[in-house]
Design goal:
- The complex is a heterodimer of chains A (250) and B (169).
- With 250 residues, chain A is of the alpha+beta class.
- Chain A has helices at residues 5-12, 18-30, 32-57, 62-68, 70-73, 99-120, 139-147, 218-227, 235-243, and strands at residues 128-131, 134-137, 159-167, 172-178, 183-190, 193-200, 228-229.
- Chain A has a 7-stranded antiparallel β-sheet with strand order 1-2-6-5-4-3-7.
- Chain A starts with a helix and ends in a 7-residue tail after the last helix.
- Residues 74-84, 89-95, 116-123 and 206-213 of chain A have low confidence and may be disordered.
- Chain B has 2 domains: 1-94, Rna Polymerase Sigma Factor, Chain: A, CATH 1.10.1740; 100-169, Arc Repressor Mutant, subunit A (Orthogonal Bundle).
- The chains are: A alpha+beta (250), B mainly alpha (169).
- Chains A and B meet through helix 1, helix 3, helix 4, helix 5 and helix 6 of A and helix 1, helix 2, helix 4, helix 5 and helix 7 of B.
Chain lengths: 250, 169
């Protein structure tokens, strides 16, 4: 099923009728490319909203407060009365940055660096181990990747499995969410190990986690999109892959 | 229901933070944004008799702000055609309140969009209005709003991806 961008946008904005919404939700669960497009809409919206939200916290300049209450000083609003508006402030050149502004700039840069660092370095070391070819899954993550089926999850598992698909080289890959660590990631089978090419610890504290496929951060969705051959496996395909012990050559 | 001037003044004053945010998303810096808010508030008082009883004061104020902004742009354009290329009537984008890099980047990207797309983005993505509310403020059909919103988003996303591509690699 094809969905145009305006439909996906309206879905991301919560503007669709319930029936249409569940239809799109099902389509998203089956197709990470749709999920990616929806996530991109949401990410852009969140970015715009948060960038401008700090304006709300700034003190309102006095001249605006005066203008808002200007009618108060006139006997009745409008209608022939001359209202006295405060003079517009003269256009003054912006003062040079002081230490405070430079500090804020430096702090925001540092925050950016920390955030991107967190994307690369997973927080929970019990479920990851650094191997030769990168990170490997361990502990409950490894167990979930090995045995858990997305189609049989009830949503309160500590590790949620999202999409299962085959990469261009035939290897099985599965997306996952570590709920406690609010970390999402991708694991791909290599020999008897699950390698972790990507994790992202910037997951929003989403309330409903039932659709692990639709809450993946865009960074992970992009990696999935780049690696996926064909479409994601359905419940049947996922079960068969587990029967094959995640070895496509069997 | 007729409010006293004091009550109306109070209600407009309560809207100021949101009006400043809306204006900021349409302008390149907070100073220009506050000038726009002031223009809109002054207009609102002058045309208070046009506020229909029972009408939503916030929607009405946002609509006045939209018109004031479009008028400003038209005036600036006319001025630019006459002469004086360096005096655009606008302040440069960097002012002390813009030290946050993210606001600056987003604001510059917004500034590159066509006016009608900027308005749609500002009302829905920044102000969080529903499609219905936003199309009422802009006095356009819903379908027109959604297509402007979609086009604006595509352009904005392209603009912002170009800017971050460097630090991901």
């Amino acid at each position: 099923m094809k969905y145009d961008d305006e439909t996906l946008m309206a879905y991301a904005d919560g503007e669709l009728e319930p029936a249409r919404r569940s239809e799109i939700e099902a389509a998203i669960a089956a197709d990470p490319r749709l999920a990616l497009r929806v996530e991109e809409h949401r990410a852009l919206r969140a970015r715009m909203a948060s960038a401008f939200s700090r304006v709300l916290d700034q003190p309102v300049p006095e001249r605006l407060d005066d203008a808002a209450r200007a009618g108060t000083r006139a006997a009745t609003p409008g209608r022939g009365n001359v209202l006295q508006f405060p003079a517009r402030s003269a256009r003054t050149p912006s003062p040079p940055w002081r230490a405070r502004e430079w500090f804020a700039m430096a702090a925001s840069l540092l925050l950016g660096v920390l955030l991107s660092w967190r994307v690369l370095v997973p927080v929970n070391s019990e479920v990851f181990e650094a191997g030769n070819g990168g990170l490997l899954a361990r502990g409950e993550l490894a167990r979930a990747l090995e045995s858990q089926l997305a189609s049989e999850q009830n949503g309160d598992e500590r590790v949620l499995i999202g999409l299962t698909f085959q990469a261009h080289d035939g290897a099985y890959c599965r997306s996952f969410v570590l709920r406690a660590a609010r970390t999402a990631g991708l694991a791909c089978r290599a020999g008897s190990e699950w390698q972790i090419p990507a994790t992202d610890s910037t997951l929003a504290p989403a309330g409903a986690m039932q659709q692990a496929g639709s809450i993946l951060p865009p960074s992970i969705l992009r990696i999935i999109e780049a690696r996926m051959e064909g479409a994601a496996l359905d419940a049947e395909g996922e079960k068969n892959a587990r029967l094959e012990a995640w070895d496509p050559k069997r | 229901m007729t409010d006293t001037p004091e009550e109306i003044g109070e209600r407009i004053a309560l809207l100021l933070p949101r009006l400043r945010r809306f204006a900021r998303s349409l302008s390149r810096n907070q100073h220009d944004a506050d000038d726009l808010v002031q223009t809109a508030v002054e207009r609102a008082w002058r045309h208070l008799d046009q506020l229909k009883p029972g009408a939503n004061l916030a929607s009405w104020m946002f609509g006045i702000m939209k018109n004031a902004w479009l008028d400003n742009l038209r005036t600036q354009r006319r001025r630019a055609e006459v002469a004086l290329p360096e005096d655009s009537g606008e302040h440069p984008a960097i002012s002390p309140v813009d030290t946050e890099a993210s606001l600056w980047a987003v604001s510059e990207a917004m500034n590159k969009l066509p006016e009608e797309q900027r308005l749609a983005i500002a009302l829905v993505l920044v102000e969080g209005m529903s499609y219905k509310e936003a199309s009422a403020v802009l006095e356009i059909p819903m379908g027109t709003l959604t297509s402007r919103l979609a086009r604006g988003r595509t352009a904005l996303a392209a603009e912002l991806t170009d800017e971050v591509r460097g630090d991901i690699a």
